[in-house]
Specification:
The structure holds two protein chains of two kinds.
Chain A: H1 17-28, H2 54-60, E1 75-78, E2 87-88, H3 113-126, E3 130-135, H4 145-158, E4 163-168, H5 173-182, E5 187-191, H6 197-200, E6 206-209, E7 212-215, H7 216-236, E8 240-247, H8 256-265, E9 270-275, H9 285-288, H10 296-306, E10 311-313, E11 324-326, H11 337-342, H12 349-377, E12 386-390, E13 407-414, E14 417-425, H13 439-446, E15 452-454, H14 460-468, E16 472-474, H15 482-499
Parallel strand pairs in A: 1-3, 3-4, 4-5, 5-8, 8-9, 9-10, 12-15, 15-16
Antiparallel strand pairs in A: 1-11, 2-6, 6-7, 12-13, 13-14
Chain B: E1 2-5, H1 15-19, E2 25-28, E3 31-34, H2 50-54, E4 61-64
Antiparallel strand pairs in B: 1-4, 2-3
Classes of the chains: A alpha/beta, B alpha+beta.
Chain lengths: 522, 74
């Protein structure tokens, strides 16, 4: 496999203009306003059991991509059985892999449906919290319907407890809704980057439609019509639908507010606005023509502006089409075809269930701890909001050493509580692009908008450098629950401001790391 | 003539295989190849050669000049 695509380059400080445009849109965007500071899960991806109808909760509670809460505990895997694609995207380079949707990396190998089914059983036996199997490429699953549905059929037979989902560009979707329903695929993701063909023409050079290559606005018109039709058909059939959108500054950033309204009105459950990943090494049109991705602040402003009755997803890791593990981790190197074909797989459903029951207990303890802490915040009613970064390995706890963190999770703290608002990757800093550069600087740039960073442990030197950068390293909550600790920290923070011990400082912007998440062992 | 696939550019995505009306395309040693005996340049089926239209890498499905032009009904 070719890892060179994950190498990164840093861009100059992005121009501030688009952010202003987004802010303007926020003001104009009445249909999808942010809800008042009730603290209730307006960030629906973070919604808990009591925030949604029971039948929907059943569908999302252990799907890491559909529930922010679940993503701390449950793992997913993708099998790369679908290499063909029926459209071309300017952010995708087919010479390596399709970067469409959240899978900008390379796939190491294509799998046949039979190999994929064996791989799923092997992984599910080794990782009992693996609850979701997705087909996301590397092309488009519905441009490879035979392989995609054969894979689903085999897995449904052998491992009936695993949830099936797929991710598509939508062009062929209306033709397959019946089959999707038949195979009990209850989660479908459509990548919708525009509903305006003028904008679409700048994103999609062509679509393959009715045995012809169609280009320009005509292509984008066909695509958007098919996507929206497919979305309507899915929701009419009770299939949970997530919409992915790639935020491309200067092309569709303002327009995504309209896209949000359009998909919400058609019943989409969740909207995932992701930053464009763009770098010349990827060999994509956008990478080569210098199209930049958004900054952390621009992305958050757009996500905030779309948040309302619509659930926003902020925990997407834009993973590869063959990723395995918790979001933010990739264990695919442990499960290559060669290794799997040699494995004796004993699929033990009861062991998996026992494990998952433990996870549920832990999860409920976490929610109880958060709620108890939240009560102590009652009465605090200030406008102040701060961001904190958290080093975690999962389970919703602060359980990662600062120096070992591949990523930091970002929480926004306010009198409403602690809200997950994103993550910042800092992995692979030394593997290319700018190996000479100090790793710590990379981390600081990635979490520069945060007031504090919560860690299980941190060395003396990075501690001092963080303090110099104005970020407080916090290790007093090591191994505690994230949300409970964050609320406690915020309470202290407010108290210290009141007593005059500290002054609140507004933080600057942060950089979103470019490139795919790749397994370090791969 | 017939179409051929430039092996060094083929991403092995398989998109062409399913579109070929003559079932002339198959995988060989990691990339896809067109059987010149079966290729009709899509004449009689479609306005444009399907492999060319669906291939994600431009100039990868190209005319193979070493074969005579395909004659419909020949």
């Amino acid at each position: 496999m070719d890892d060179s695509r994950s190498f990164e380059t840093y861009e100059a400080e992005p121009a501030p203009a688009p952010l202003d445009d987004i802010m303007q849109k926020i003001a104009e965007h009445k249909g999808c306003g942010t809800s008042g500071g009730s603290g209730k899960a307006s960030c629906g991806s973070g919604a808990s059991e009591n925030d949604m109808p029971a039948e929907i909760w059943e569908k999302v509670k252990n799907h890491p991509c559909y529930s922010e809460e679940a993503h701390h505990h449950y793992a997913r895997m993708h099998v790369a059985v679908a290499p063909a694609c029926n459209i071309q995207c300017n952010y995708c380079n087919r010479k390596y892999d399709c970067a469409n949707e959240s899978r900008p990396g390379v796939v190491s190998e294509k799998l046949s449906p039979e190999q994929a089914a064996k791989k799923v059983l092997a992984v599910a036996s080794a990782i009992p919290q693996m609850t979701v199997l997705g087909i996301a490429g590397p092309g488009d699953p519905l441009a490879n319907p035979g392989k995609t549905f054969k894979t689903f059929e085999l897995i449904a037979e052998a491992a009936p407890d695993i949830k099936l989902c797929l991710s598509t560009n939508g062009l062929a979707l209306p033709d397959h809704v019946e089959t999707i329903k038949k195979f009990n695929v209850d989660h479908v993701t459509i990548t919708i980057n525009m509903t305006n063909p003028d904008i679409g023409a700048e994103i999609y050079p062509w679509v393959f439609w009715k045995h012809k290559r169609v280009t320009g606005k005509e292509a984008a018109k066909i695509l958007t019509d098919r996507q929206l039709q497919g979305l309507e058909m899915l929701t009419a059939n009770g299939i949970l639908c997530k919409v992915n959108s790639v935020m491309i500054p200067g092309i569709n950033d303002d327009h995504l507010v309209t896209v949000n309204r359009e998909v919400k009105s058609r019943g989409a459950f969740l909207h995932n606005i992701m930053p464009l990943i763009s770098s010349p090494e990827h060999g994509t049109v956008f990478g080569l023509n210098g199209q930049r991705g958004p900054s952390a602040q621009e992305l958050k402003a757009l996500q905030d502006s779309c948040e309302g009755e619509m659930n926003m997803m902020r925990h997407c890791r834009q993973c590869r089409a063959d990723a395995v593990g918790l979001l933010g981790e990739d264990r695919s190197a442990e499960f290559t075809t060669e290794k799997i074909m040699e494995m004796e797989v004993d699929y033990d459903l009861s062991a998996r269930q026992a494990y998952q029951e433990k996870v549920e207990e832990e999860r409920q303890a976490k929610v109880a701890a958060r709620n108890a802490e939240l009560e102590t915040l009652a009465g605090e009613n200030v406008e102040l909001k701060i961001l904190v970064a958290v080093a975690t390995k999962g389970s919703g706890r602060i359980n990662e050493h600062f120096g070992h963190a591949d990523e930091f999770q970002i929480y926004e703290l306010s009198s409403g509580g602690a809200k997950f608002v994103g993550h910042r990757r800092v992995d692979l800093y030394c593997q290319g692009g700018y190996g000479e550069e100090d790793a710590l600087e990379t981390v600081i740039r990635a979490i520069n908008d945060c007031t504090a960073v919560f860690v299980a442990k941190i060395g003396h030197c990075p501690k001092e450098d963080l303090l110099k950068a104005g970020i407080e390293p916090v290790d007093q909550y090591a191994y505690e629950f994230i949300e409970q600790s964050a609320i406690a920290y915020f309470k202290d923070y407010l108290a210290k401001i009141k007593s005059g011990e500290i002054t609140h400082v507004t933080r600057g912007d942060a950089t979103i790391r470019q490139g795919a998440f790749v397994s370090v062992d791969a | 003539m017939t179409y051929k696939i430039v092996a060094s550019q083929c991403t092995s995505c398989s998109a062409c295989e399913a579109e070929c009306p003559n079932v002339a395309i198959s995988e060989k040693n990691g990339t896809f190849v067109i059987n010149p005996k079966k290729c009709t340049e899509c004449i009689g089926y479609f306005d444009v050669p399907q492999c060319v239209a669906v291939c994600p890498v431009d100039n990868t499905c190209v005319i193979d000049n070493s074969y005579p032009r395909y004659q419909a009904g020949a």
